[in-house]
Specification:
Layout lengths: L3 H30 L9 H5 L1 H26 L6 H27 L15 H13 L6 H26 L9
Helix pairs in contact: 1-3, 1-5, 3-4, 4-5, 5-6
Length: about 180
């Protein structure tokens, strides 16, 4: 049994990340359903078939990720090996698609618009990976498990940030 403060901290973290993912899914749905691109400076980018496929695949993986997270939280008895595989694979896919959109959008040319310049660090990918770290059980001792989760969270997110810094210029993400 975990001490009460650790349970509360984990619930707050999971709730915050879950709410963030849900809001991003809602914004993605509204962005995908937006049919009027005439006045949009990024219309060529948004109409690109590759970007559309990436966005749909990313949205589906995030919906599966959020759904498996909710199912594991509401019904802990469903926390079986299969559901954990679905949770982790969909989380990795959702994180991958965000990075892949950065790569794809910055590698290919869309008319006069280089819309990927100035994009920030892929925060959703970081949040999903952080949530996956916090869903694992690393130790039977709650305090050690909590410390290990913090260390892993810092290491992975610093690593992701360093990757982002290393591709900033190569993928034309630099602001001028």
């Amino acid at each position: 049994m975990k001490p009460i403060p650790l349970q509360v901290a984990e619930l707050i973290l999971v709730g915050w990340i879950g709410l963030t993912i849900l809001l991003i899914i809602v914004f993605d749905l509204s962005d995908l359903s937006e049919a009027r691109f005439e006045d949009d400076p990024f219309s060529a980018y948004r109409r690109d078939p590759g970007i559309i496929r990436i966005n749909i695949a990313s949205l589906l993986s995030r919906v599966v990720f959020a759904g498996s997270l909710v199912l594991m939280r509401i019904k802990p008895q469903y926390r079986e090996r299969f559901l954990l595989y679905v949770f982790f694979l969909s989380g990795l896919a959702a994180s991958f698609f965000q990075w892949y959109e950065l790569y794809y959008g910055s590698t290919f040319y869309y008319g006069e618009v280089r819309d990927k310049q100035g994009l920030a660090f892929p925060l959703l990918a970081s949040a999903i990976v952080t949530l996956m770290i916090w869903e694992c059980t690393y130790s039977s001792h709650p305090l050690w498990a909590w410390r290990l989760k913090i260390v892993l969270t810092v290491l992975v997110n610093v690593g992701l940030y360093l990757i982002w810094l290393s591709v900033l210029e190569a993928w034309n993400l630099v602001t001028h």
